[in-house]
Design a protein that fits this description.
- The protein is α/β, with parallel strands linked by helices.
- The chain contains eight helices and seven strands.
- The longest helix has 26 residues.
- 39% of the residues are buried.
Length: 244
Amino acid sequence: MKSAVLAAWRLCRVVLHVLRGLAIVLLLFGGLDAAGRRGHVLRWSQRLLALAGVGLRVDGQPHPGAKLYVANHVSWLDIVAINAVSPARFVSKSEVKRWPLLNRLVDAADTLYIERERRRDALRVVHQVAEALQAGDTVAVFPEGTTSDGRHVLPFHANLLQAAIATATPVQPVALRYSDAGHAVSPAAAYVGDTNLVSSLWQVLTAEGLVVRVRLLPAEGTAGAERRVLSEQVREKIAAGLLP
């Protein structure tokens, strides 16, 4: 009973925080430069984690300048966690555009959308990512293409790494690991199977002592790299980075 009441309190505060974020996007973002928008994204994401009862632990440092973050994928919460450390432009599935309210926040973060059911769309997004990297942006991708339970790293789709190779931009692996009071790898964060956004949010809010560790591993050079080889090297480093 106590945990349900606490989760309900957290839910109310999270909803209000999302509405506050929408107000910032609608009223302020149009007059801000990129650095100003990133500052709001950073603070908003940090606050959202706190309101949801999720602790944040950071290992490592963001590589300076333009970079491609390559991360394992466990939950929708991954985006919030990375943005709470180092805001990035994410490549996200096009279905996110249909999420009510949240789609406005995702759009405001200059998200790049990919239609995964269309094989040729990956090439279009590779060009968009390359343009963003050339402009000095930080872009984040989840090359597993789907979420896992957080215990292992699924095989990577290497296509989007070509954007970093083509622009000679460093790739920085990011290992995301969720734990809670009773589990070294928390099942509460996993957005897998038949889980929907509402039930996933409730799992997060009711978890006891949920903590996300964002481990920023050393960046990899990409000049002259072969994307499948680079992809596997990065995947192995992320898998090792998930260890305690």
